[in-house]
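Predict the assembly for these four chains.
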Amino acid sequence: MTKPAPRDDLAFKPLYAQIRDLLLKRLVSGEWPPGTLLPSETALAGEYGVSQGTLRKALDELAAERLVVRQQGRGTVVARHDNERSLFQFFHIHGADGRRQLPDSKLIDLTRTTADREEADALAFAPRSRVLRIERVRYLDGRPAMVETLILPQALFPGLGESDEPLPNTLYELYQRRYGITVARASEQLRAVAADPCDAALLGLAPGTPLLEIRRIARDLQNRPVELRRSRLDTRQHYYLNELD
Amino acid sequence: MTKPAPRDDLAFKPLYAQIRDLLLKRLVSGEWPPGTLLPSETALAGEYGVSQGTLRKALDELAAERLVVRQQGRGTVVARHDNERSLFQFFHIHGADGRRQLPDSKLIDLTRTTADREEADALAFAPRSRVLRIERVRYLDGRPAMVETLILPQALFPGLGESDEPLPNTLYELYQRRYGITVARASEQLRAVAADPCDAALLGLAPGTPLLEIRRIARDLQNRPVELRRSRLDTRQHYYLNELD
DNA sequence: GAGTGGTCTAGACCACAAT
DNA sequence: TTGTGGTCTAGACCACTCC
């Protein structure tokens, strides 16, 4: 129907990749909020003037990135941040028996402050940007297992934590629903550290106990850093699982 | 050419998945050792009596699992365990500056013994199977950074460590070349532990220092556990990186 | 029954590697 | 020049969901 992509410029992209980018732009724009049923493959193919096969390959790529979910017989849905997704994509902590569950959270502290140098570097911010700092303890099987510090740019999450409403347990769902920010990927750096007196008191263990520290940078659909998170986990009853394949 | 797959049994698989399984069987069998150039898509499609598109989808799946590598203009090659693959698929440790390099290794001890209960469980072995136990220290930037214990079933690696030849630094390449065992995937459990006196002496740090312990179970093409590995990393200069996407 | 995504086919042309 | 994998198309039928 349309001729194949021309090969003029050096940054050549196959047609299906170009279509993928156009679809992603519409996801980012908010035209199709999470939970929306996309137009059918044939409709989109017609709209872009490509074959169904090419459009399908574009959607398959977005599905592989977990930005959309394909459902035979129903259609293609924009991915939503439910507990299921949080658990499978972003939560790698397992109990000694191999089970996995989302932790409960107890807020310890919530302050508005400025990013220190390290935080600004990690988030690719201007130094001394305004950030929200959240400290919480997370419970697994009803017992305190993890201390967590979050750094959020105030510019992206205006008004967060100002009302009296309690913060939900799964924050990414809130980012998406209230601020239209979808956490699409993250990178985590893992280290072993000694519990400082504060960690120790919150987790009920001796200072100096080894803890697994996880430093996460979460990014949105445009690959922009939106959250910095430092978790310290007591690994006597739990471990972090990574599958390599 | 051939009719679509029948829908008789409950364990229905699409045709391309069946072809994938047949190709995998030939990889496992040793018919196509690592490094081999596979027959072309058209040749294989003819052989199985399917269209090129279906055969392509089967090969694409194997490529996604990193069992084969596609090279435009050349053909499809059976994946080989080179340093590149070891680094990208199996080695997640980075230096403080984000760089990554394979560590050097120094052998500390090599003994033939029987698996203890925990080891036998992890490897899905009969208890008290004969295993080879290797202890080594691994160096990054010329400095000791990690203590590593490996448990290998003697039945799978006969004669390993009996001659005087030194063990190579990247073992997976040896498993593949000498024993025809390809490590295809692995799972890693991460915990924070305190350095015991032995770790401390080998790494030159104080006993009790927090170390990142990585327990890896490596599996071959048939998903059979072939190696158990327990690494303890000094994370003052290095970290373990996991990308979630 | 209507509409969706999932599978499969057949054929065309392109980019790339090897000779 | 030959042969490979990569892209793109057009059309068919199937399995599934929903009304």
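The helical segments of chain B are 15-29, 41-48, 52-64, 83-90, 117-123, 171-179, 197-203. Residues 1-2, 4-5, 14-16, 50-54, 57, 71-75 of chain B lie near DNA strand C (CB under 10 Å from a C1').
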